[in-house]
Amino acid sequence: MSKLLETCSIEEVCSALGGNEKLLVDLRERLQDWLRLQPHLPQDVPEARLQYFLIGAKLSLEQAKQKLDMYYTVRRLVPELFAERDPLSPAITTLQDVLQWVCLPKLTTEKYRVSILRAIDDDAAKFIPWNFFKYTFMIGDIRVSECRSLGDIYIYDLSAMRLGHLTKLTPTILKKCEVAATKAYGARIKGIHFINAPSFADRIVTLIKSTIKPKLSSRVHVHSSGLDSLYEFVPRSVLPKDYGGEQPSMDKLSDMWREKLEEWRPWFIEQQNVHVDESRRPGPAISGDDLFGFSGSFRKLDVD
């Protein structure tokens, strides 16, 4: 199957980050050299993934080291997200009949990737948050290898969401997912948009803002009366037909992602037990309390 996603060229990414391809290659080689000295980390990391961490770190070698280490660390610390990721497992196939999570094929003019969540079954009893977030990180792993962008925009269609969905989103779940997304996957969140918002949307926004810093809070928007205000942030040219756009429908895109995940099934199964080995880490081991701060108050996250 061909690649689903438009991608930035290496030249575009490097230029946006104030560097060039020669610098990226040099940093990648230095990151590879550093990796060889880390006995606690897997050693067979493809060049494309090393470049991904450097780009996510804005070409900072030290930050790329931290993200690469964290990528394999969260795999061990958050099994709810990174264990049992067979795309044909009941947890995933059942989820696909309840929710659609779609990364859109086209980038915005700013080279941002847009992703949309839409529930297709309003029965909150069928909503299992960990399975949903596991699914999003599976797609994230494919993106690590198959595309490059300069940021992410998330759109949440709340038309079929009920209060029962909200009550399942605990601060612990949101915190672990936020840490994994920003510190391990290097997500650079440029906008969070809620559309078709019900009366309880303010509770969702309050819950999300409770785990993020003010800089990101300012990028959270609720569109309660039509989509015209959304188009000010996301052009119709990248949106599915369902939202007045020019791209294939959500159903079609969701089916395409289902096929893509099945194509990647051998990789997900192979990676099942690939994570950090804390017994071999130079220096102190990293625990969940160290990373998520659950022994004290939640620590809010910085964003780019």
TrEMBL record:
Protein name: Retinol-binding protein pinta
Residue ranges occupied by any CRAL-TRIO domain in the UniProt entry: 155-251
Record PANTHER family: ALPHA-TOCOPHEROL TRANSFER PROTEIN-RELATED, GH10083P-RELATED
Pfam families: CRAL_TRIO
Record GO cellular component, one term: membrane
InterPro entries registered for this protein in UniProt: CRAL-TRIO_dom, CRAL-TRIO_dom_sf, CRAL/TRIO_N_dom_sf
CDD domains: SEC14
Residue intervals passing through the bilayer: none
GO function terms (MF aspect): phosphatidylinositol bisphosphate binding
Coiled-coil residues: none
